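Inverse folding, one chain.
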């Protein structure tokens, strides 16, 4: 897949590291949807125009690219494998 400015980006994990990275992606002109367990950590991005998703799967639903930035192995397992995790998103695993 070729990534263009029209590509949609999902960013899961908007804490101390993820929020700045997602912000740079937005600054580059990409349409970004975010998910974080604590919505308040995404508020600055939402105020700048990011879209909110209620789960990792919903964030990734229409995304061309998915970034994850979470801290612990159990968090990684949860965002990928939970019933509303990334692998449950329509189109998960597409290349």
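Residues assigned per position:
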């Amino acid at each position: 897949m070729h990534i263009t400015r029209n590509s949609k980006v999902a960013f899961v994990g908007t804490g101390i590291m993820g929020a700045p990275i997602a912000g740079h992606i937005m600054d580059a002109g990409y349409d970004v949807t975010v998910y974080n367990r604590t919505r308040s950590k995404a508020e600055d991005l939402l105020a700048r125009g990011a879209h909110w998703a209620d789960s990792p799967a919903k964030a990734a639903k229409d995304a061309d690219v998915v970034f994850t930035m979470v801290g612990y192995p159990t968090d990684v397992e949860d965002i990928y494998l939970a019933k509303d995790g990334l692998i449950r998103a329509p189109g998960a695993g597409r290349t």
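Strands lie at 8-12, 31-35, 51-52, 65-68. The mean pLDDT is 91.
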